[in-house]
Amino acid sequence: MSPLPASPADRLGLAFRLCLTGLSLCTALAAEAAPIAPANPPRPAPALGIAPRGALFTPASAPEASPAAAAEDDSDEDFRARAEAEVLRRVGVGVRREAQRLWLPIAKGRPVVLDSRRADPSDPASPEVDFRLDGLSPDREFYVVRATLAAGSELLWISRTDGTRYAMHGNVHPSPDGRHLVVTHASPGAEFNGVVIWRREDGRLVERYRFQPTPEQTAISFRFLRWRDADTIELAQFAEVDPSICALGTLSSTALLARKGERWILRSASAQRCEP
């Protein structure tokens, strides 16, 4: 039997698996670790905006071209290059760019090297990807790098200690005590759709909770609202329904994700209502 053709989700997943080596995700809940005292680091450089999706490289550009040589048509590539140049100027931690190569120095070992590249028609396993530094994490212990592909994007946190890479999927929201990080991302297509909670442990990130809708639940999504306290997250929950139920086809409600001992429990916290 011949193999089935790869879906956009499969291609995106394969691309990120090629980019993210050494990443180990723990989907089971683990025992509670000793509290980590929140640090008071210097204020980090703010993350800048990300260009809208489109062609990753301008027709006249080549992978070896200098980022300073911006094209005249103000392409997505040029926007990302200008945004990153401002981040590099502000961060000042030894990060540098050489053409399409991004160098990230770390405390232990050789620098992390990320190479942006064009798609190779002869090699479907080598997709087009553009790596850009977005800034530093709030505690300045991780580089924040955005990987933009033709079919979507991924947000990477890379340890400044040992270079370990973590796929964060979306914007990160630290808890008030700094011990936990929550990420929500809604995507009807190939990108990640769900909620993930990480815990900071001795300079590492350990996954403590993950919710992804089943194939029968693909119309469910979440958006971060706020941390009510260090152990409770308030989320907006959305569900796509038939227009005969809601005119706009979307039901919304509030959900709470709360830590109880060693577990995180997701539950509804309000009645569903039609989106106005």
Automatic annotation (TrEMBL):
Signal peptide residue numbers: 1-33
Keywords: Signal
This protein's name: Lipoprotein
